[in-house]
Amino acid sequence: MSIDLSTLSPRELGNLITTAKKRQAQLSKRAPLAQVRSKLTRLAKAEGYTIEELFGTASAARPGAGSGKSAPRAGRRLGKVAPKYRNPENPKETWTGRGKQPRWLAAYTAKGRDLGEFLIPGTAKLTPKPQAAGKKRVVKKARK
After folding, report:
1. Of 2, 16, 81, 110, which is most buried with the most CB atoms under 10 A?
2. Do residues 87 and 93 lie in contact, with contact meaning Cβ atoms separated by under 8 Å?
3. Quick check: 94 and 68 in contact, CB under 8 A?
4. Measuring CA to CA, how many Å separate 21 from each of 9, 16, 25, 29, 71?
5. What is the mean pLDDT of residues 57-61?
6. Minimal CA–CA distance to 117: which of 87, 72, 137, 73?
7. pLDDT for residue 74
């Protein structure tokens, strides 16, 4: 977070300093993160649980298990995929190559730029274009 201090009035600057000092005091009173983690792990272990069971991770019980409701219909689930394309003007905007192209990429390709220009170095190759399902050609045999 960056704040342009030159645009602040003396009153706004004073409020910012006061708020920052309050926040700094709050953070200094907190115990270190590693200490809190170990304390929670010890407490969970003493009660016969693991942190994964308590806070849920991918390896913990599945959602809906144990409840009277049936689980949602299992469909094709795709895992998360690392992004392959990045917007050069805004590095936070990325695309995995799945689904519809984002607007920023569609605008660039409409101007004639190549999709390969936006590949993130070290990632996979270009995503191949989906092949259009062409009409099947029906050939009728002549009767004799």
Report:
1. 16
2. yes
3. no
4. 18, 9, 6, 13, 49
5. 50
6. 87
7. 66
